[in-house]
Amino acid sequence: MKSTINPADRSFVSYLPELIEYPDSGIITKVIVKDKNCQHNLLCLAKSAKLEEHISPCNATINVIQGKGILTLDGEEIKLEPGVFVFMKANSPHALQALEKLAFVLTHSEKL
């Protein structure tokens, strides 16, 4: 499921914990805001949900809000927990598994 929360034509404030909505299985993606330079998404993963290894043509960041998971980035396992910030260079192979319910902001920059 994917939905857009805010338009990019005005300033706004969002309290992210209020936007979190965990599915029974899989992933819910909410686009917080999108403009021509970047897209900020709130991803909410059910316990044990996985994102198989893939690459993105643009730089990306992860900012964990709630829960725990494991990100495999360029072959290295990174523990995801609240407060963790990850920068992923464009075209870096990565995969993710939620060890418990997991919510984070994923930001994609302009495509390279």
What does it look like?
The protein has 112 residues and is mainly beta. The chain has a single domain (2-6, 32-108), classed as Jelly Rolls (Sandwich). The protein has one helix at residues 16-19, and strands at residues 2-4, 27-34, 39-45, 50-54, 60-66, 69-73, 76-80, 85-88, 94-98, 102-108. A 6-stranded mixed beta sheet has the order 1-2-3-10-5-8. The longest helix is centred in the N-terminal third of the chain and has 4 residues, at 16-19. It is globular, with a radius of gyration of 13 Å.
What's the N-to-C terminus distance? 27 Å
Element-by-element helix/strand order: EHEEEEEEEEE
CATH homologous superfamily placement: Jelly Rolls
What would you say the CATH architecture is? Sandwich
- Indicate the percent of residues in helices: under 10%
Short description:
By secondary structure, this protein is mainly beta. The chain is 4% helix and 50% strand.
Topology:
Blueprint: E1 2-4, H1 16-19, E2 27-34, E3 39-45, E4 50-54, E5 60-66, E6 69-73, E7 76-80, E8 85-88, E9 94-98, E10 102-108
Parallel strand pairs: 1-2
Antiparallel strand pairs: 2-3, 3-10, 4-9, 5-8, 5-10, 6-7, 6-9
Notable traits:
single chain, 112 residues, mainly beta, Jelly Rolls, four-stranded antiparallel beta sheet, 10 strands, globular
